[in-house]
Amino acid sequence: MMFQKAFPSTLVFLFFCVAVFSTPPEDPIKCSSGNTTCTITNSYGMFPDRSICHASKVLYPTTEQELVSMVASAARSKSKMKVATRFSHSIPKLVCPEGQNGVLISTKYLNKIVKVDVEARTMTVESGVTMKDLISEAAKAGLALPYAPYWWGLTIGGLMGSGAHGSTLWGKGSSVHDYVVNLRIVRPASPQEGYAKVESLNEQHEDLNAAKVSLGVLGVISQITLKLEGSFKRSITYVAKNDSDLGEEVGDFGYEHEFGDITWYPSQQRAVYRVDDRVPINASGNGLYDFIPFRPTSSLALALLRTTEDIQESAGDADGKCINAKTTTNTLITSAYGLTNNGIIFTGYPVIGFQNRLQASGTCLDSLKDGKITACAWDSRVKGEFFHQTTFSIGLSVVKDFIEDVQKLVRLEPKGLCGIELYNGILMRYVKASKAYLGKQEDALDIDITYYRSKDPMTPRLYEDILEEIEQLGIFKYGGIPHWGKNRNLAFEGAIKKYKNAEKFLKVKEKYDSEGLFSSTWTDQILGLKDGLIIVKDGCALEGLCICSQDSHCNPSKGYYCRPGKVYKEARVCTHLRSK
User: Fold this and answer.
1) Is cis: bond before 350, omega within 30 of 0?
2) Domain segments of the chain: what residues?
3) 242, CA 20 to 30 Å: which among 77, 248, 481, 559?
4) Domain at 233-340+366-492: CATH code
5) Whole-angstrom Cα distance, residue 136 to residue 385?
6) CA–CA gap between residue 402 and residue 428 (Å, rounded)
7) What is this structure's pTM?
8) How far apart are CA 291 and CA 336, in angstroms?
9) Distance from C-alpha of 39 to C-alpha of 52, rounded to nearest angstrom
10) Which N-terminal stretch is annotated as signal sequence (predicted)?
């Protein structure tokens, strides 16, 4: 979710194949008979373990009253339930009900703006409203959501379920859920209460801290009220620098610039700083941010790009990847990543514009059907991007050490991280400690890495061991907290122990859904209630499904292997060793 999208090789060609129109993503829910006998996936067409999730039926409430009735009916029959959204951008299996007899409740039609209070600067929306619609409607009323994810295809309920965020250390931080002042959630109830009830939680209600980031296990959020601000303008300038002092600068940069972030290209020893701050409302400029990787793209171009990367992977062509990575980066920097000064062309920095025109984008969603001539780059219906995404937050107190560790790996294998630079490098966003029980635990830097995934689960990636080592350094050596809406299985191993209020969350979960109707094996596993998160099988390490502490735990002949880290004894990497 939430959300750094990939932008792979031969970008110059891709840049000129961006289209005006696009085929919108298909519904992630497919049913063979009306709204029954259904499957659900994510927007990428594949979960980390490549499983298919089933449901007996899908329900589409249009009002809170209908939602209460649907939850009550399912609770009466003790049916498992899961909430689904219009686009389903979470990578892990948060939307999967248990077995094949569960019920999906889609918020696709719970998509109305309920109330805008200009004087109080609040907006109440149904949970299926997208970021795009919220931002747009707020702007019409002279209001603005201060911080948000960069991708506007998320629903408000969905981003709260996974804790999605933007980038800031200012105010209450960059997580949207920390600006929620009221929330209504429909949960199972006793027979005496009609099997379902609505809980209305305001800022004084302690349960709000559980519902703000709920993983969907408390019930179905029906309405959310957000605290907004008056409309304002921002000024953005991208500054590219050598990364030699990145570790020293990263801590202060987030406090110096309200909306700052950093995109790091380690193999190129280059970092791009986003200098992004508020300016007076009368500052001249009507800038627009239409982020290039989120634009509709020619399906033919996408197929060519994927074929090129497949060939480079199979041939071990690291040089080719490094050349393409530099081309990609240079083109993005030259094109200001999609910024324009007036909505048409980029004439130079700074780009100044209103918050609603700069904070998020996703034009590949806003289009007419064109027979898949164009699509979002990751649309599984075309041959396009297919990737893993590893995302974790590291405390600001230790992030310098993490960056320096990665730089040591680059010195050992200078070409080892060219692959991630085809997907726009490492996005680093600032996050602030949250009161939400499953929110961020401290002021931190969110590390977001996107990288190639093979269609064949038994095929290792080029320089896979380097990426595996970075993943384990971040999550285990430095105690990184995984993003709930991204990541492979191993990132969640023991994660719940990193949350000081985990027990409080579990108590609210027991109170709201004592029979676990909104829970599944997957959510029980990531919450530490069941074992089985780590799956040891042929090829498990290639997909991030297993981890080991001793060499004897893995067998290289079966596609997984455990070796001591090249630099750090603390990092033991379970991976298929690439041939030298």
Assistant:
1) yes
2) 29-106, 233-340+366-492
3) 481
4) 3.30.70.2520
5) 29
6) 12
7) 0.93
8) 9
9) 7
10) 1-22
